[in-house]
């Protein structure tokens, strides 16, 4: 009996502890359920507010990205452009910004923008004209990028027919004893003098370089891709002298050109750019295509440089004033194709079957041509899918570009091929745009916090 009594007292002593643990467990479960319900409520409320904001913009005649999506299947680049507009990073067709920048966009459209930037967040007398120009440049770039994007599928991959500033792939590269690519460096009698916009944002450059390695390098045979040096990623803006139309200059004249370029840089504002898409051209160039979301537009830079350098080459390398692209890599060898690819086996088999049916010597050449055309088409489809993935991954990548380089290239395509060059950094100082610069800096900082 005494033994049983002791067990009973121990069990009774454990009852409060069990009750406390059970109570705590119940509280944890109830608290978790309440938290989930609260999160669901917040998400539902945010969705309703978002729908209401989009509906308001549509009622005012400004189409939303949802309207674009309802119109049918969209390409990766179209989706990216729509998302950038929906987020307020880029203006819509009317120059308005919606999303998180919506209120600032409306105030900017009314107040103006005296530096022609796409932000629309700064005041100025030339506001409406500046916003209109920014939208015109944006859509000019988009149309150009659309044409570049569709050219690959329309023409197929045509590496043998490619030319970069009058140079074919054989002029730019050779194979080493190990089969790897080696650049062909040709010294110039008259150095090329170029004004370029370097990718100063090292993090953005690393992301671009990594995307090339992830999505393109695995598709190509060894030595099939030349990757640009990410430390000198750049966009060509203007040429004082090209190797196609050389303009000799003495050291004093080159210094005078630098002074003129510095005067342009002093008045221009740093560019805030955003990636809209990545494309491959039929000639195999892999290009990051940018939009200008703030600062002095690249088209304005080119106009100002043309005025500042009246003796520059008449044959400019860049023919479109609004384009802003960075060459990331060059495809030198077509991608590997096998029977598991999309139509490669069937396309080649069909071509060879036609050759057998014709049974003539001419038919063999026709079959070979058909097979080559099928391979070029399949290579284009494969590469297009890869850069579409890059667009999806990098859509909205933003970078600040605070300076120009005045580069003297002593070898042909020195910046692209690792040749010898000299650069002089020219800061974009935004002189006379103190208010605009402050507003742009605030907007840029807000965007960085949102990323």
TrEMBL record:
Domain of life (superkingdom): Eukaryota
Keywords: Initiation factor, Membrane, Protein biosynthesis, Transmembrane, Transmembrane helix
GO-annotated molecular function: translation initiation factor activity
Bilayer-spanning residue ranges: 12-33
Record field: compositional bias (Low complexity): 347-357
Region ranges (Disordered): 100-126, 334-357
Full protein name: Translation initiation factor IF-3
